[in-house]
Amino acid sequence: MSDALLSVRDLVVEFPTRKGILTAVDRVSFDISRGEVLGVVGESGAGKSMTGSAIIGLIEPPGHIAGGTISIAGQRIDNLPYEAMRRVRGKRIGMVFQDPLTSLNPIYTIAEQLIETIRTHMDLNERQARDRAIGLLDQVGIPAASRRIDDYPHQFSGGMRQRVVIALALCVEPELIIADEPTTALDVSVQSQIIDVLKRMCADHGTAIMLITHDMGVIAEAADRVVVMYAGRVAEIGAVRDVIKDAKHPYTKGLMGAIPTLMQDSDRLTQIPGTMPRLTDIPPGCAFSKRCPEAFDRCFVEQPDCRPYQGRDVACLLYDEGKPQ
Amino acid sequence: MTDVLVGIENLSRDFDVSKPWLNRVLENEEKKYVTAVNDVSFEIRRGETFALVGESGSGKSTIAKLIVGLIRPTGGQILFDGTNVATRGSASMRQLRSRFQMIFQDPFASLNPRWRVKDIIAEPLRTFGVAEGRAAWEKRVDELLETVGLSAKDGAKYPHEFSGGQRQRVAIARALSAQPEFIVCDEPTSALDVSVQAQILNLMRDLQDEFGLTYLFISHDLSVVRHMASRIGVLYLGRLVEVAEGKTLFRDPKHPYTKMLLDAVPDLEMTGRKRQPVEGEIPNPIDPPSGCTYHPRCRLANDRCRSEVPVLKLHGDTKAACFALEEGRS
Prior knowledge:
The complex is a heterodimer. By secondary structure, chain A is of the alpha/beta class. Chain A is built from eleven helices and twelve strands. Chain A has one domain: 3-Layer(aba) Sandwich (Rossmann fold). Helices cover 32% and strands 24% of the residues of chain A. In chain A, helix 3 crosses helix 4, helix 4 packs across helix 6 and helix 6 runs parallel beside helix 7. Chain B is an alpha/beta fold. The longest helix of chain B has 18 residues. The interface between A and B is large, with 46 and 40 residues.
């Protein structure tokens, strides 16, 4: 607990709608240690991005944090006033979004955007900030950085833009980077380059990364531990290898079987019947109960808590009963 | 050779990307073209799933559109069951059309939001005269809905009432309604979540067994292709660089690009492995490199690769277009 950099406890994010309150994130808890890559996976609507947005305080109103705490190195950040939070963003937490074109301003050069960010958070003059910016671009693997820094975003390819966005997130050496689907818009060959850059940054600077993605392959490649989310709740948290090789939660098991792999021949993929419930009609009890092949009476009435089981945390009543198949 | 259903011969397609006429005159510029598909030849056998893989801009979707006749080729020909698709008149083309169908990537854009699902599925039935009379087509629509795992009463709903996976099922039902032999699937699952993707892929395989369908399966996701395809063609910048049996391709890729692509896929089985760093990116197709278009990213490239264009040749069971392979430099 004490060495956790980021600590999220019982986080609840709610959206008031005409049909009542919609709970996008429901009592989610996890920690990220310094220098760790924590993967967050789930299907669309599982609440992964919403959790990321909650951490950097960028939830679009009328959505709001309705409960729980978020703290970075022991300091609570979920209740900070706007100005104080703005200093945390960028300085302590960096952000990399999915679409590298929309996260850069098209009418400013890369230099202007990097230098602005650096000078907002650090006491450097124009010259020093520019040198720092060139150094960063160089680190993330942009060839001829000193020449390309004066280009506009549209002059870069998708992969190069994502590198610029990573450089932008790294500007002031934040302790944590939240990367929300950083490679989803990219081709596989470029994706593997970007994953390499992220991993190197993590190793060189000791930056912790929260890697949000729907692609289990990316998690397998890059993350140390993984949080599996389902319908706004945590289903399972554990070391990547454990979760992939030996999933405990029935949803995680189904998810792993549903992914076609390059190495194995399989005639049929395991399929999970049905689809994830809409957030407006999550069943009572366990959110997965209606699709779960192993569900029993308690699953339909009782909502399981995330409890430790064999070196990981699982939110499933099967393990509570002590009768995993 | 008789079991070839679709034959693609030297297919090419250029797109005009020139500036407007006035700009060209004022700036003294020539017309510019992108060659999206360049001299591509392959054949699809009856009953198989032929997959095309490649990164964005490699011409996968253009080939799909060419085959179903949504756009016309600049050169080469497409033979469907021995007849050239492009040169047919519109009346006989229409007849041929009922024998092939297409499933698109985005099930949110490919279904008319103002039509009920049963009308969407019935459209090909009525157009091609497969089912005469209202009672006949309504019965057929109900059957089709159940074939794809929806219920007959879903026919009265509108597309927005369905999830992405269910909409893709509707699109599949529509494709099946004309009783085609051949279905072109352009990234049919890339807009879907993994658990739903598994449902759709399983459904497509079941339907293939049940109706003896032939698929052209287009995807950028190598693990999905591995799961679905019997044979695979790898595209790079509009050219086929390798064609092989599915298993052979993944066990023993020949072309350096295929090797790089396979190496780049993050895979569940290989947690923590070391791999060769990927170099470079796909070049701008408006101004492609000379010779073999892959040479700027290839470790094996020499002067010949920079000046001559390699053609597909047999290497073992695999066809690959690479001088390094031919000369035994790999």
